[in-house]
């Protein structure tokens, strides 16, 4: 277990970094750790709705930047992670059946899971939106675990979906790309954090 005051320090260290020092690179070991934190993120029914495109290539970042509101994070970060939602795959029986089968539980329980899942996704208003929500959970792990090892991040939703997905070769009948997380090292001091007080946002029911 970690010390709470140290964890709070990490939470305060994490901020939406607007400008990275492009000369400072993330080590392979650190990047692997960050990606591992994404891999281990929870997802609805354990379907791991995501895949990650880690863009280190500066030319590709430059192509993307104009479609991302020209945000400086895109080209100054070291690694730009595009989190892709696999909405078609998670609604494909061969995929979700295998995901339940890997649990190693008995055949009846597996079938029960599969049935419950099929019924669940059948009534969802949008499987795409549901899959995208899971991507934000992985993004949260990426940002918080990066902060734990002194790496800065910025979540980025400010981009033209259609154009970015086209550049990344994402077939929107199968997948979508709801957000990037840019990673690197800050150049400027972070701005003060503004948050509503806990008593305004929490209700404890005993
Ligand atoms: C899903 C999501 C998308 C965001 N998109 C952008 C973005 O495109 N550009 C940006 O500079 N900040 C973006 N932000 C950062 C927020 O503005 C920031 O997290 C918020 O103002 C709180 O500040 P802090 O993260 O520094 O504590 C995004 C945050 C989230 C969670």
Structural notes for this entry:
- The chain has a single domain (4-201), classed as NADH Oxidase.
- The protein has helices at residues 4-13, 28-39, 58-64, 72-76, 93-101, 107-122, 127-148, 161-167, 198-201, and strands at residues 50-55, 79-85, 152-156, 176-184.
- The protein is α+β, with helices and mostly antiparallel strands.
- 27% of the residues are buried.
- It has nine helices and four strands, in the order ααβααβαααβαβα.
- The longest helix has 22 residues, at 127-148.
- Helix 2 packs across helix 7 (127-148).
- Flavin mononucleotide is lined by residues 15-16, 18, 71, 154-158, 179, 193.
Short description:
This protein is an alpha+beta fold and 206 residues long. 45% of the residues lie in helices and 13% in strands. A 4-stranded antiparallel sheet has the order 1-2-4-3, with helices on both faces.
Topology of this structure?
Elements: H1 4-13, H2 28-39, E1 50-55, H3 58-64, H4 72-76, E2 79-85, H5 93-101, H6 107-122, H7 127-148, E3 152-156, H8 161-167, E4 176-184, H9 198-201
Antiparallel strand pairs: 1-2, 2-4, 3-4
Helix pairs in contact: 2-7, 5-6
Residues 15-16, 18, 71, 154-158, 179, 193 line the site of flavin mononucleotide.
Share of residues in helices: 40-55%
What is the typical, i.e. mean, pLDDT? 97
The shape is globular
Proportion of strand residues: 5-15%
Rounded to the nearest angstrom, the radius of gyration is 19 Å
Number of DSSP strand runs: 4
Distance between the termini: 27 Å
CATH uppermost class: Alpha Beta
Number of helices: 9
Would you identify the CATH H-level superfamily? Answer: NADH Oxidase
Output the structural class. Answer: alpha+beta
Largest sheet: 4 strands, antiparallel
Uncertain regions spanning at least 5 consecutive residues: none
Q: What's the domain count?
A: 1
CATH topology: NADH Oxidase
Q: Which CATH architecture?
A: 3-Layer(aba) Sandwich
